[in-house]
Amino acid sequence: MKVAFVVPVVLALLLAGQAFADTLTWSFRNRSSSVAQLDFKSKSSHRWWPGHNKAWTLANDGGEHSYTLNCATGELITYGAMVLRHPSTYWGAGPRHDKSCNRCVATCGAGDAPLINLDD
After folding, report:
1. What pLDDT, in 10s, does the model give residues 81-97?
2. Residue 5 falls inside a structural domain
3. In this structure, is residue 97 part of a structural domain?
4. Is residue 3 part of a domain?
């Protein structure tokens, strides 16, 4: 009798978790003269991508690079980028995500964020 109860509960929890799972894809083109570091932070929770105090390296090759984040539907996410080893030169919300910015916030589940060009 216990097994018959556990299976439906586990199944319901799995399905409920998937109902809130969504993605947000950001695309960047680094046209600056410097290699950059890039990360994302949720404004709705304490989540960071790729992780707190971690960042992706974004080559200054002029090519388009995309990052797909697993997130909760409706979650507001900001990007922050900076010149590698020079946090005073930044784009978006900055390296600590404490700067105000235009076009640096997107909503999870509302479609892909627009292409962001990082220029000098």
Report:
1. 999 888 899 999 999 99
2. no
3. yes
4. no
Query: What amino acid occupies position 80?
Result: G
Domain that holds residue 65: 21-118
Domain CATH for 37: 2.60.40
Task: Render the burial of 54-83: b for 16+ CB within 10 Å, e for the rest.
Answer: ebeebebeeeeeebebebeeebbbbbbbbb
Residue 5's alpha-carbon distances to 8, 16, 56, 64, 76, in angstroms, are: 6, 17, 44, 50, 37
**pTM exceeds cut of 0.70:** yes
User: Mean pLDDT over all residues of the chain?
Assistant: 86
